Automatic annotation (TrEMBL):
Domain F-box: 276-331
Organism the protein comes from: Ceuthmochares aereus
UniProt keyword annotation of Nucleus present: no
Protein name: FBXL4 protein
SUPFAM superfamilies: F-box domain, RNI-like
Domain of life: Eukaryota
UniProt record, GO biological process: SCF-dependent proteasomal ubiquitin-dependent protein catabolic process
Pfam family membership, one: F-box-like
Keyword line: Leucine-rich repeat, Ubl conjugation pathway
One GO cellular component, as annotated: SCF ubiquitin ligase complex
Keyword Cell membrane: no
Gene name of the encoded protein: Fbxl4
Length: 620
C-alpha cells in the first residue's frame, strides 16, 4: 500500500473527531441561529422603521487623509452624503491608507501569522455611532469609487452615548463575505442581506479588505435602518440542515470559538475521555505538525477528544506564533490568563484590535507579559486603545529580545510613554503611524535603537522638526531599509540630504504629502543619486516633481518597483518612457492627476509596458 494512505486515514480520523465533537455538544439554542433557520424567517411589521446616518466616527485603523484635515479622512463618514451618487475621486469621502497587494511586496512587508483563519481577511476597520439604538433591518453603504472592499459588518451591544458602562460588551456579525472584485469603479449603494440580532445597537463597525482593488476605495456615508422594538420572527420551517454545523458559520468562527478558549483552557483535571486510538502510534513530532495547521478555537475543541490530544493542544510549542486579532471581539483578561501557561515560549504575538472598551485591562496585559514576554521577538498592538505608559514600561522590561513593535494607530498612548521604547536596543522594526510620539522621545529612540531597519512615522503630527529627526537617522540608523514619512509637515531639503547621506541602504521611502519639499532645491535628484537601492518611492501630491527627477531615477535607481508621483504637473510622457525602459522591475506607477499624462498616453504606455500597472485616477 502507498505510504500516502495511512496519512490520509489519520487526517480523516482527525477531522471526523472534530466534527463528531461539535455535533455532540451543539445545543438546540445554538442551532436555532444557523442559516437554515435564518433563511426561512421573516420579521413581522410591528414597528415603524427608523432611518439614520452616522452621527459620529468613533474609531478607525487608518486613513489616507491628514490628522488635521477633513480631506480623505474617516470623519467624512459622519452625516449625510457629500458625493453620492457621483462617481470618482473626491476629497470629501473616507479613504483607507492602502489598496491592492502593493504593500505586501515592499521591503517593509512582514511575514503573515500562521494559523490565521482563512475566513478572517479584514485589513482595516471603522466604527460608527448612530443617534438611536435600533434592531437593525438594513445597512446601506454608499461607495463612490472602487467599491467592493467591505467584507464584514458588525453590531455592538454597548451604547457609546450611555453614561453607564455595560457589564458585558457583545459584538455580532450582521454580514460577512470574502473580498470580491467589482467590475468598474462607479458609485453604488451596497446593501447586503444582514442577520437579525437580539439586542438594539447604535454602534456599527465596517471591516474592509482592499487587496483586490485597483485603487483606493472611497466611502461617502452609512445608513442604518432599524426598529425600536425587537421584531417577532415567524418560522416557516424548523428543519435543520447538516450545513448548520459547518465551519463557515459566523458564531463558530468569531464568537463561540473564543468562549471555548475561556471555558476549556481553564480545565485543570480532565474528565474521562475516549482512548487515544491510533494517535498513540504516531511520532510526537508528526502529531505536532498536523496540529500546527489548526486555528486556536479548533485546538480548543480538539483538546476535548482524548488525553493525548489534550496534551498536544496545550503544548507551548503550538503557540510559538499566536495571532489573536481574528478573535478581537472576544479576547479579554480571562482569555489572556488561560493562555499564559501555553505561551511561555511565544515569539510572535498579535494583539492588534483587541482590548478596547475595557475588555483588556492594564493589569491583565501586564500579568500576561510578565509570564510570556521573555522570548517575544515580534509584538503587534495596532489600535490597542487600552495601552498606556505602564504597558509600554512593562513591554520594555519584560521583552528583552523584542525586535518588532507595532503601535500603529495607538493614539491614546500619552506622549511621555514613548520614552520607554528607547530601552529596547534590539529593535529592528518600529511602527508609530498615527501615534502621539513627540520629538524628544523619538530622538532618544533613534539614539539608542541603532539596529532599526524599518521605521514608520506616518501622520505623527506631534513632531516639530523633521529635519532634526532626519539628521539623527542619518547619524545613528545606518541599517535603515524602509522609512515612512507620510504627511510629515516640515521636512526640507536639508533633512533629506542628511538622510540620504547616512542611510544609503534605504530601499523604501514614503514622502507622500510632504508639502515643504521642492524639486527646485535638488532634493529629489540627490535622493536618486545617493540611494541606488530604492525599490519603492512615494512622492504623492508633490506638484514640483519634474522630468529631471524622473530621469535621475531612471539613471540611478534601476531596481525601482513602485513609484507614486500623483498630482505633479511637471512630468512629461518622454521622461516616463525613459523610466519604464530603464527600470525593468517596475510594477506600479501612479500618475493620477498628472496634468501632462492624459488617458491616451496611459493607453500607449500600457501597450508598450504591459507588466507595469499604470494608474490614472479621475474626478467627474
Amino acid at each position: 500500500m502507498s505510504p500516502v494512505f495511512p496519512m490520509l486515514t489519520v487526517l480523516s480520523m482527525f477531522y471526523y473527531m472534530c466534527l463528531r465533537r461539535r455535533a455532540r455538544t451543539a445545543t438546540r439554542g445554538e442551532m436555532n441561529s444557523r442559516r437554515a433557520i435564518e433563511s426561512n424567517t421573516r420579521a413581522l411589521p410591528i414597528n415603524v422603521e427608523i432611518v439614520q446616518y452616522a452621527k459620529e466616527v468613533l474609531d478607525f485603523s487608518s486613513h489616507y487623509g491628514s490628522e488635521n484635515s477633513m480631506s480623505y479622512t474617516m470623519w467624512n463618514l459622519a452625516g449625510i452624503p457629500n458625493v453620492y451618487p457621483s462617481s470618482g475621486d473626491f476629497t470629501q469621502t473616507a479613504v483607507f491608507r492602502t489598496y491592492g497587494t502593493w504593500w505586501d511586496h515592499c521591503p517593509s512587508a512582514q511575514l503573515p501569522f500562521k494559523r490565521t483563519p482563512p475566513t478572517f481577511c479584514s485589513q482595516d476597520y471603522v466604527e460608527l455611532a448612530f443617534e438611536e439604538p435600533v434592531y437593525p433591518t438594513a445597512v446601506h453603504i454608499l461607495e463612490t469609487y472602487h467599491p467592493g472592499a467591505v467584507v464584514r459588518i458588525l453590531a455592538c451591544s454597548a451604547n457609546p452615548y450611555s453614561q453607564n458602562p455595560p457589564a458585558e460588551v457583545r459584538w455580532e456579525i450582521l454580514w460577512s463575505e470574502a473580498p470580491t472584485k467589482v467590475n468598474g469603479p462607479q458609485a453604488r449603494q451596497f446593501t447586503p442581506c444582514i442577520k437579525q440580532i437580539n439586542f438594539p445597537t447604535n454602534l456599527i463597525r465596517l471591516e474592509v479588505n482592499s487587496s483586490l482593488l485597483d485603487y483606493y476605495t472611497e466611502l461617502d456615508a452609512v445608513v442604518l435602518h432599524g426598529v425600536k422594538e425587537r421584531p417577532v420572527l415567524s418560522l416557516k420551517s424548523s428543519m435543520i440542515d447538516m450545513n448548520d454545523i459547518d465551519e463557515d458559520e459566523d458564531e463558530e468562527k468569531y464568537g463561540c470559538g473564543m468562549d471555548t478558549i475561556n471555558k476549556q483552557f481553564s480545565i485543570v483535571t480532565l474528565r474521562e475521555l475516549p482512548t487515544n486510538g491510533y494517535f498513540d502510534k504516531l511520532p510526537y513530532e508528526l502529531i505536532q505538525l498536523i496540529l500546527s495547521h489548526l486555528t486556536v478555537p479548533d485546538l480548543c475543541r480538539l483538546a476535548q477528544t482524548c488525553k493525548l490530544l489534550y496534551q498536544h493542544c496545550c503544548d507551548p510549542l503550538q503557540y510559538i506564533h499566536l495571532s489573536l486579532q481574528p478573535y478581537w471581539a472576544r479576547i479579554n483578561d480571562t482569555s489572556l490568563e488561560y493562555l499564559q501557561s501555553r505561551c511561555t515560549l511565544i515569539q510572535w504575538l498579535n494583539l492588534s484590535w483587541t482590548g478596547n472598551r475595557g475588555t483588556i485591562s492594564v493589569s491583565g496585559f501586564s500579568r500576561f507579559l510578565k509570564v510570556c514576554g521573555s522570548e517575544l521577538v515580534r509584538l503587534e498592538l495596532s489600535c490597542g486603545h487600552f495601552l498606556n505608559e505602564t504597558c509600554l514600561e512593562v513591554i520594555t522590561e519584560m521583552c528583552p529580545n523584542l525586535q518588532d513593535l507595532n503601535l500603529s494607530s495607538c493614539d491614546k498612548i500619552p506622549p511621555p510613554a514613548f520614552n520607554h521604547i528607547a530601552k529596547v536596543g534590539s529593535l529592528k522594526r518600529l511602527i508609530l503611524y498615527r501615534t502621539k510620539v513627540e520629538q524628544t522621545a523619538l530622538l532618544s529612540i533613534l539614539n539608542f535603537c541603532s539596529e532599526l531597519q524599518h521605521l514608520s512615522l506616518g501622520s505623527c503630527v506631534m513632531i516639530e522638526d523633521y529635519d532634526l529627526i532626519a539628521s539623527m537617522m542619518g547619524a545613528k540608523c545606518k541599517k535603515l531599509r524602509s522609512l515612512d514619512l507620510w504627511r510629515c509637515k516640515n521636512i526640507t531639503e536639508s533633512g533629506i540630504a542628511e538622510l540620504a547621506s547616512g542611510c544609503q541602504l534605504l530601499e523604501e521611502l514614503d514622502l507622500g504629502w510632504c508639502p515643504t519639499l521642492q524639486s527646485s532645491t535638488g532634493c529629489f535628484t540627490n535622493l536618486a543619486r545617493k540611494l541606488p537601492n530604492l525599490q519603492k518611492l512615494f512622492l504623492t501630491a508633490n506638484r514640483s516633481v519634474c522630468d529631471t527627477d524622473i530621469e535621475e531615477l531612471a539613471a540611478n535607481c534601476t531596481h525601482l518597483r513602485q513609484l507614486d508621483i500623483l498630482g505633479t504637473r511637471m512630468v512629461s510622457p518622454a521622461s516616463l518612457r525613459k523610466l519604464l525602459e530603464s527600470c525593468k522591475d517596475l510594477s506600479l506607477l501612479d500618475v493620477s492627476f498628472c496634468s501632462q499624462i492624459d488617458n491616451r498616453v496611459v493607453l500607449e504606455l500600457n501597450a508598450n509596458f504591459p507588466n507595469v500597472f499604470i494608474k490614472k485616477s479621475f474626478t467627474q
